[in-house]
Amino acid sequence: MRNLKLILAYDGADFSGWQVQPDTNTVQGTLASAIGRITGEKVLPQGSGRTDAGVHALAQVMTFVTESSVPTQNFVKALNDVLPPSIRVLGVSEMPAEFHARHSARAKTYRYRIYRESICPPFLARYVWHYPYRLDEAAMARGAGLVVGENDFTSFAAVDPERGREGDPISNVRTIFSSKWERVDDELVYTVRGSGFLHHMVRNLVGTFILVGRSTLQVGDVTTILAARDRSAAGATVPASGLYLVGVEY
Amino acid sequence: MRNLKLILAYDGADFSGWQVQPDTNTVQGTLASAIGRITGEKVLPQGSGRTDAGVHALAQVMTFVTESSVPTQNFVKALNDVLPPSIRVLGVSEMPAEFHARHSARAKTYRYRIYRESICPPFLARYVWHYPYRLDEAAMARGAGLVVGENDFTSFAAVDPERGREGDPISNVRTIFSSKWERVDDELVYTVRGSGFLHHMVRNLVGTFILVGRSTLQVGDVTTILAARDRSAAGATVPASGLYLVGVEY
């Protein structure tokens, strides 16, 4: 019996999110049936976390346990041959039995891409949020720095009906190691690395920084909103299309 | 009455090609209804040429005649507001009545992108052809040069049921001004500029150069195939996903 860890990239636009659901195209469900075709086993692969509908992954991590005789390294090509092109297995490795994609994770990095020019190329529309309006990008950069550290992120957390069921800690305290905006050609890109993220947390942070960029909020209001521990104090959830799970550290 | 010329980009993966068809999502049909919403007029915009299902455009040109009072420059934003994100209007200009997107065209440029690494990123799958197998890229480059000039391209032309109906010249003679392969990071990219192109001509040229790259054909066989004026002499049609109409010159 082997505990296999896969590194995955996927185009979230083609899926109703990570988590398996009946009669819906999900990343987890698509991977479960691809593994079933190769091993003949019925497995439910465990991801490092769920991604919502439309959210992309550059290096999602998942594990599954198999008793099949397929050599570990062969899973990359075998799975890529049966998966749709919108999901790619980038690597595979055998892990100790106690390794768990979700519980063993120590840090995750997310990125959010905003396309700033007036006309968004059709080839980018699925992969960015198009926001061509005036933004004070310097103020947004200062605001981003204010969420670094250990904080209670209740103001930025959507109510998650799945919480608890999967044994999450009840606390909304998370540690953000880095949080920054940078200009990359025609895009404004937010990159955040933290110990963990609550439901919609990155998209709610971005929605709040947007209010700072529009001068609806002052930079220092980010600290006030964080302290309020009240979802209604923060900005709206920005669209899923711009969000990427960049990587998971163990 | 104004004859308006639009420059368009579109993601062909979302459409059953350019040409309007009943109960099918086409670029021409989508543009016709978007114009209808803005002007109240029923028009059939004329493209510089049809693109097949899955073929992309960086700068397709189309014209339509309008009697509406909408100022010319307003059409860019007005159309982009009602079009899906997979079609963007990049520019608009008023042209003399005799200008016709198709008949006035003097040259077109197409590009074909082949992704060469073993795993194709999911974000590129709609926009390239994934061909990770061995290719003699230098031989392909030499083969590409052999189609430059005025030639009868019957060997590279699909039978086109629409020919004649739209008043095309019956001749399969076209002039290729330049034809070359180049390496762009992980991609092998073919760019061809010519007076005009027959149905499937670029994809059939690429399919033939692939046979040269695989050493199934020798470089000089390209000249023999061209002289044969026989479709069965050339290579297969490669997938639409890698093909782009780059621009049209007048």
Shape label of chain A: globular
Average pLDDT of chain A, rounded to a whole number, is: 95
Can you say what the CATH homologous superfamily of the largest domain in chain A is?
Answer: Pseudouridine synthase I, catalytic domain, C-terminal subdomain
What count of structural domains of chain A? Answer: 2
Order of helices and strands of chain A: EHEEHEEEHEEEHHE
User: What is the distance, rounded to the nearest whole angstrom, between the alpha carbons of the first and last residues of chain A?
Assistant: 22 Å
How is the CATH topology of the largest domain in chain A named?
Alpha-Beta Plaits
CATH domain class name of the largest domain in chain A: Alpha Beta
Any idea what the CATH architecture of the largest domain in chain A is? 2-Layer Sandwich
Structure description:
Chain A is of the alpha+beta class. Helix content of chain A is 21%, strand content 29%. The first copy, chain A, has helices spanning 27-39, 74-82, 137-145, 201-213, 221-228, and strands spanning 2-10, 46-47, 56-66, 87-95, 107-115, 129-130, 149-152, 173-184, 187-194, 243-249. In chain A, strands 1, 2, 3, 4, 5, 6, 7, 8, 9 and 10 form a 10-stranded mixed sheet that branches. The first copy, chain A, is globular. In chain A, 38% of the residues are buried. The mean pLDDT of chain A is 95. Chain A binds chain B through residues 9-11, 56, 76, 80, 85-90, 119-123, 125-127, 130, and chain B through 9-11, 56, 76, 80, 85-90, 119-123, 125-127, 130.
